[in-house]
Amino acid sequence: MQKGISRKASKPLLKLPREELKLIIEKKRNRISKFNEFIYRHIDTLKNIKNDYCFVLANEEGCLISVKYRPGMIEREFEYKEFFVPGVFFAEESIGVNSISIAGILKRPIHIYPGFHYLTKLKNWYEYCIPAVNKGKMAGYIAVVSFGQPISKALEGFTDLLAVNLFYEYFATGNENTTDLSTSQQLTERQCAILRMIAQGLSDEQIAQELNLSLATVKYHNQIIFKKLNASSRVDAVVKAIMLNKITFYDLYSKYA
Q1: What pTM was estimated for this model as a whole?
Q2: Across the strands, what pairs with 146?
Q3: What domain range is 97 assigned to?
Q4: From CA 53, how far away is CA 48, in angstroms rounded?
Q5: 41 and 99 together in one domain
Q6: Which residues belong to any copy of the HTH luxR-type domain (predicted)?
Q7: For residue 173, how far is the Cα from the chain centroid?
Q8: Each residue of 65-109: pLDDT tens digit?
Q9: Are residues 163 and 203 in the same domain?
């Protein structure tokens, strides 16, 4: 037994009462809207992924507040439907070990593979979760669950961008160095080209080769890009560029755009 759960459990043990859930959803309404809108606008970039998957938004306590399935998936019979109802807790005492419960402990992104699951019913779940943590305070979780197939780089990358986009304002709060995106400096055409390649996962060496530039030149441009966008990482730079319409989300999947 794991925290009082039988391996044969067929549904979550913890779920919020309807009235409490309504209050939480109202409180998180803006975040839920951003989650739904981002997926609606960009889900077409994942059209080549044929296996079933879903994206999950949970609050700081690991309670599901929104779920989005692969297009067309919800229309079919889904054996895990009871696990993906808003109000269900992805806590260890509810469904056993899962990516949200572990990410909450470690406070960093985490992959969970089928063998880690305690419940027999979840033995073909692949999970990837990103917790939103700032100064030790948890703001929520973004996770993707893939059923029967490992999580692809495309799904992982989409989840990374979704998380940074969704929680950007939370991380920016209280940060005096945060750039006002509406007044950010313009990127040159060369810098936009490099940024598109960064978005597609190319290394500095690969970018230099593709653009016939020296490695030192590419690294210099990277420094300028990060400075203009006030970005702390590659993912942060890409998300801010998307928000500024310097690149589009589709640039992530069109070779070198």
Answers
A1: 0.71
A2: 53, 126
A3: 18-172
A4: 13
A5: yes
A6: 180-245
A7: 20
A8: 999 999 888 655 678 989 999 999 999 999 999 999 999 998 888
A9: no
